[in-house]
Automatic annotation (TrEMBL):
This is RNA helicase. One of its GO terms (molecular function) is hydrolase activity. Residues 550-561, 576-586 have a biased composition (Basic residues). Belongs to the DEAD box helicase family. DDX56/DBP9 subfamily. It comes from Camellia sinensis (Tea plant).
């Protein structure tokens, strides 16, 4: 067993190594050649900064608390060393329970992590078994999934608790077998209400178990989890260097905002999309499901096809919508970030519970839905906040859906006077600073008043036709369609897991056929500035090989290292006893240059 002094000197070595060697390879990190080959097949050649720091530490058996920006490659940072450790263990594995648990807050993330781990295992051709547990599974399905047992279990904490309470997982077996526990998106686990579920598990985590906490933001919740789960004294925290607010948003994401009344938001978003002032693919956030459908119906009248994603839809449909969007089958996805609705529902439920009248407390929304947080949307260029999120953390997670890996991205927030207060809160959470792109939300420069006014008449006319009843009917219709889809999907995808085209989710819901004259914006309605702006966007798109949203052409390496979230992770040593941290080299020297670029979207 190493002493605390050993621990500190190890940390210092790691730190210096990182400072010296910015271009380390996976090989130099000690990664197994099979994993390196698998990564090459996935087009991944070099580790990201968080991977450079975390992989050797995890391989060395340390507990790690890793905090790194959204899109910085945290999943591989733990999945790769975890698999490597299991490569050597699996032959001698006589365990009665899984060796590794990966706990995630949402089903969507569950699916994503499971798929990443499975695909690496398949590419490495090793005898490891990974399974995912879902809360919809019956006790016998859970039993079947855990038979064997698998080497890796991906699950929400709630399912683990269910397995323990139903006797599907034996606590003693867990104590004897569990060697690695990962809490992914740790900052969200408690806010999704998993505290009791986690507590039910902690009693059975053996002391020798290696624990890893991955998170995009730091919060009191992460601290709480650290205390709850991490009992091994060898902990390395990897927060960002210096100011906590340093580069919370990746530097290759440009953030913009537009001030407009709540009523005018429809005409503004129409102008952004129809006049092509933002690049595709576009992810649009609303705060309520009804607003999501209102937007969809509104867009349909202008020939803009979009799909909606929300917690009301069956799980298969949600996962399929994500797959289709990631594969580039449609360009506009309206996602409802309904953490607020969930909270409201939870309040209602607890009220109902207090009254001991639970029969009306049916859960309509899926509490494990979480499309905003942690999901790896592929090639989303623009995130639009149609409604503003309720907190700084919510904003960070939403914006983090663009600018992932080596891509650039932009965000546009439509802010009404009623939302100014929360907007100010968000800005102070980011530590807004005009000299740093990553923290600064600039006024959107490409939309002129003329352009908005030219569309106002048409937009308001259509907006009036999208009545509450129309929204309610289309919401019900979509749910019916998706329930049918869900059944078909289940059956079909068991046999053809890669067949994405079968069911499209961006079909038209409006009863009223779109008027042909609304499809195109006639040239006489467009002022020269807007025409110019739209051309600039198209050219930028073409220059980046982004003319077809389904295919990302490599423009890796064209970014300056410092403006890339994957390159700019920096780590700092724990507060006590270790100073210095891993600094980004020359991080501020080209700020002026970045500011000049602010005009392009
Ligand atoms: N070394 C690498 N080189 C290039 N791309 C990478 C590398 N590592 C991961 N990626 C890609 O980067 C994207 C983001 O990775 P990941 O989802 O792990 O980010 P994250 O840090 O977990 O973000 P979030 O906090 O939003 O969940 C993924 O598409 C992943 O395939």
């Amino acid at each position: 067993m190493a002493t605390a002094t050993d621990k500190l000197s190890h940390e210092n070595e790691d730190h210096e190594k990182e400072e010296q060697d910015d271009d380390q390879t996976f090989e130099e990190l000690g990664l197994d050649p099979r994993l390196i080959r698998a990564l090459t097949k996935k087009g991944i050649d070099n580790p990201t900064p968080i991977q450079r720091v975390a992989i050797p530490l995890i391989l060395a058996g340390k507990d790690v608390v890793a905090r790194a920006k959204t899109g910085s490659g945290k999943t591989f940072a733990y999945v790769l060393p975890l698999l490597q450790k299991l490569f050597s263990d699996s032959a001698s594995n006589k365990n009665l329970a899984p060796t590794a648990f990966i706990l995630v807050p949402t089903r969507e993330l569950n699916q994503q992590v499971y798929s990443e781990a499975l695909s690496l295992i398949e590419l490495c051709r090793v005898q490891l078994k990974v399974v995912q547990l879902m809360s919809t599974m019956s006790a016998s399905d859970l039993k079947t999934a855990l038979a064997g047992p698998p080497d890796i279990l991906v699950s929400t904490p709630a399912c683990i608790k269910t397995c323990l309470s139903k006797g599907v997982l034996n606590p003693t077996s867990v104590q004897n077998s569990l060697s690695i526990l990962v809490l992914d998106e740790a900052d969200l686990l408690l806010s999704y209400g998993y505290e009791d579920d986690l507590k039910a598990l902690t009693a059975h985590i053996p002391r020798r178990c290696q624990c890893l906490l991955m998170s995009a933001t730091s919060s009191a919740d992460v601290e709480k989890l650290k205390k709850l789960i991490l009992h091994n004294p060898y902990i390395l925290t990897l927060p960002e260097v210096g100011d906590v607010k340093d580069d919370i948003i990746p530097q290759n994401v440009q953030q913009f905002w537009i001030s407009c009344s709540a009523r005018d938001k429809l005409v503004y978003i129409l102008a952004l999309l129809k006049l092509e002032l933002v690049q595709k693919k576009v992810l649009i956030f609303t705060n309520t499901i009804d607003m999501g459908f209102r937007l969809k119906l509104f867009f349909e009248q202008f020939g803009i096809k979009s799909a909606v994603l929300n917690s009301e839809l069956p799980q298969n449909s949600r996962l399929h919508i994500l797959e289709e969007f990631n594969a580039g089958l449609f360009d506009y996805l309206i996602a409802t970030d309904d953490s607020q609705s969930k909270k409201e529902q939870a309040d209602v439920e607890s009220h109902v519970e207090q009254k001991k009248s639970r029969k009306h407390a049916k859960r309509k929304l899926d509490s494990e839905f979480g499309v905003v947080r942690g999901i790896d949307f592929k090639n989303v260029h623009t995130v639009i906040n149609f409604d503003m999120p309720q907190s700084g953390a919510g904003y960070i997670h939403r914006i983090g859906r663009t600018g992932r890996a080596y891509n650039t991205g932009a965000s546009v927030s439509l802010v009404s006077p009623e939302e100014m207060e929360i907007f100010e809160e968000i800005k102070s959470a980011l530590g807004e600073d005009e000299t740093r792109d990553s923290n600064f939300i600039a006024p959107f420069p490409l939309l002129t008043k003329n352009a908005v006014e030219s569309l106002r008449y048409r937009a308001e006319d259509v907006a009036r036709s999208v009545t509450k009843i129309a929204v309610r009917e289309s919401r019900a219709q979509d749910l019916r369609n998706e329930i049918l889809n869900s059944e078909k999907l289940k059956a079909h995808f068991q046999d053809n897991p890669r067949d994405l085209d079968l069911l499209k989710h961006d079909k038209v819901l409006s009863k009223k056929a779109p008027a042909p004259h609304l499809r195109d914006v006639p040239e006489y309605l467009l002022d020269p500035t807007t025409q110019e702006a739209s051309k600039v966007i198209k050219l930028a798109r073409a220059a980046m090989g982004n003319t077809n949203s389904g295919h990302r052409k490599g423009f890796k390496g064209k970014f300056r290292k410092n403006s890339n979230p994957l390159k700019s992770f920096s780590a700092e040593a724990p507060k006590r006893g270790f100073k210095g941290g891993m600094k980004r080299k020359g991080k501020d020297k080209d700020d002026g240059h970045r500011n000049k670029k602010k005009q392009s979207v």
